[in-house]
Amino acid sequence: MCPDNQDPADGALPAAALAALARALPERIDADPAQVEQGLAKLVLTVVELLRKVLEHQAVRRMDGGTLSEAEIETLGLALLKLDERMGEIKKVFGLTDADLNIDLGPLGRLL
């Protein structure tokens, strides 16, 4: 168990990571109608990118631990590749770059 009473194997972010993420987010939301759609896309894509990185880390850990079959590795690899391609398409539609999604997580560093 971690000091914050969370099992690291359950995939939940530790309290320190959540606090750092909260500090990285702006205190006020810009409600300019012209910017709302892009801002929402940026937020959603940032969360999806964070989850993709967690999934990728878990996949590597499971591959290194030998708990995935060759078929599971292939399926997981293709799913992550398709997600990366789709994210690229959506970023292009909204005029976003990887740098736009690279939020500062405080003591944890930057997301990307």
From TrEMBL:
It is found in: Gas vesicle. GO terms for cellular component: gas vesicle. Coiled coil: none annotated. Belongs to the gas vesicle GvpK family. It holds the Pfam family GvpK. Keywords: Gas vesicle. Signal peptide: none annotated. It comes from Gemmatirosa kalamazoonensis. This is Gas vesicle K. One of its GO terms (biological process) is gas vesicle organization.
